Amino acid sequence: MKNKNKNEWLNEFKEFVSHDSTEVPSHLSERVFSKMEGLLNPSPLIVFLKIFGVHLVVGFLSLAVCHQFGVNPFGTPYSLADVFMKWGGHSICMVFCGVLFASLSLLAAGYFLTIEEVQALKRTEFLQALSLGVMSLGIFAGVGAELVFTFAGLWLLGALIGGFLSIEGSLWLRVRAVK
Known about the structure:
By secondary structure, this protein is mainly α. The protein has 7 helices and no strands. The chain folds into 2 domains: 1-41, no CATH class; 43-178, no CATH class.
């Protein structure tokens, strides 16, 4: 689907309406155009709320395989965090855990979002990924996790990296699915 600006869509819509032999009431054409514009240009806030809903579920489930900041709601004995710690210590573990935590949620959200919503997400990807990461850290703190500024910063860096990669991957997959 080609990316067109509002004026191009409006001109094409007017041309379509002008070819019809019956008169379309102006309030109806305005309502249709408004609805189409909303579908083609979704609100970044609505997109974020959808992503955050998916993130709450997927993020909680991901804690079963990678305990982060000591949070282990399922009481599972094994964690990817142990593997990450062996690879490079606490710092590498924090970055990889952030990547995993954010990327799983955003990949899952990319499946549920429309292609237009994924494109809206792409336009605000830094803000969306940063907000998701900061809110996640806030939830971790709210459930009693001890956050150390340095490690939380590394985790947030990982979440941003995972967010960018997942958003790009989701958009790539959605575009390929349409073709």
